[in-house]
């Protein structure tokens, strides 16, 4: 879900470049991985690089085609009365890791997402020894439901999610990304599925999405373009 808007614009640009129309279906990452693993036929798969590694190891995507597309940072946000779309905040949400720990302790309800960003946040909280203290104040959003929606509805008062999923959402104010010493970053990658009906066409589209031609689109959606390893 974190990449749904940027993928829509990038695949539209690929179509404008003569590479053919791409129909993108965006669902929660857990659901997407499961559907690919169960053999549902798709030409391209876009997921966190860790999920794609599992799928490639199991033979569900072509390992030779896996390519990083965007680097996403997790940001913190709070509820806002404004109906205007949220804008990216300059800088970091907290002065340092201690500032983030204090904010967690002070929050009444803390929203976090499914997928890699939520997993990384919970792991960080456990490393800090705060899991028991925070207890049921930690509220995981349902798959496919953005944390921004929980903030806007008043269900949580502090939320953590991929910056790209917070930008443009009404009813939230983005505080900024997490401090460098506790930053949570996810690389989302693409690959050609082994069940692809049009392997050559899928490879051409994927090459376009990884090229400099798509870089400005990624930046516009609050992503960075990771270096290809």
From TrEMBL:
GO BP annotation list: molybdate ion transport
One MF term in the entry's GO annotations: molybdate ion binding
Name recorded for this polypeptide: Molybdate transport system substrate-binding protein
